[in-house]
Amino acid sequence: MQIDLPEGIRTATRADWRQLGDITAEAFFDDPVNRWMFGTPRAIRSVFTTLARDVYLKRGMCFLAGDGGATMWCRSESIRAIPPLAMLGLAAGVARWGSKGAVGRTLKAGDVMDANHPHEPHMYLFTIGTRTAARGKGIGKALLRPVLEACDRDRLPAYLENSNPDNTGFYISQGFERMKLFHVGDGAPPLEAMWRKPKAL
């Protein structure tokens, strides 16, 4: 897949795993599902830095907008199973920094998300977010559009799980459609599955 990046957006390298994790964690500190699942900002940071380093920088594609925004993507066929070492690192971080029961909630959530994941080949948007100080400046759209345009060229759908209702309008404005709500555990806030069909060029 050829991604044409605008000025100010660059492809992240494996050396960028901490920055990817830090930006994403800050963006998700007030996210309802992540707060329910992990319980603490430190656990959220541990999860996103681990997944950036051990999964998305190896199997997917990640992009940075300076130090203000970040996104992590993967082809659907590349993310069906998290590597065992990555899973161990993820669980260790959640056990150390998360609130009581966080490891169990995390494992359960992963199973539920997998069960609800579409089988049709697609690009999976794992995360997109900006630092607090960078919000409202169009960075999210600038990060999202290049991959969506590539999806359109390649006739490939895109999929995401929206964990914050405040973001629904943004995703709809970028062509995503609402599929269904589901819960990753008892008492969890809802996740919303969203799907984007490729647009005609």
Topology:
Elements: E1 10-11, H1 17-28, H2 32-38, H3 41-59, E2 61-65, E3 69-75, H4 84-97, H5 102-116, E4 123-130, H6 139-154, E5 158-162, H7 168-173, E6 177-183, E7 190-196
Parallel strand pairs: 4-5
Antiparallel strand pairs: 1-2, 2-3, 3-4, 5-7, 6-7
GO molecular function: acyltransferase activity, transferring groups other than amino-acyl groups
Organism: Hyphomonas johnsonii MHS-2
Domain N-acetyltransferase: 117-201
Describe the structure.
The protein is an alpha+beta fold. The protein has a single domain, classed as Gcn5-related N-acetyltransferase (GNAT) (Aminopeptidase, 3-Layer(aba) Sandwich), CATH 3.40.630. 44% of the residues lie in helices and 20% in strands. The protein contains seven helices and seven strands, in the order E-H-H-H-E-E-H-H-E-H-E-H-E-E. Helix 6 links the parallel strand 4 and strand 5. The protein is globular. This is Acetyltransferase. GO terms for molecular function: acyltransferase activity, transferring groups other than amino-acyl groups. It comes from Hyphomonas johnsonii MHS-2. Keywords: Transferase. Pfam families: Acetyltransf_1 (PF00583).
List keywords for this structure.
201 residues, alpha+beta, Aminopeptidase, seven-stranded mixed sheet, 44% helix, globular, Acetyltransferase, Acyl_CoA_acyltransferase
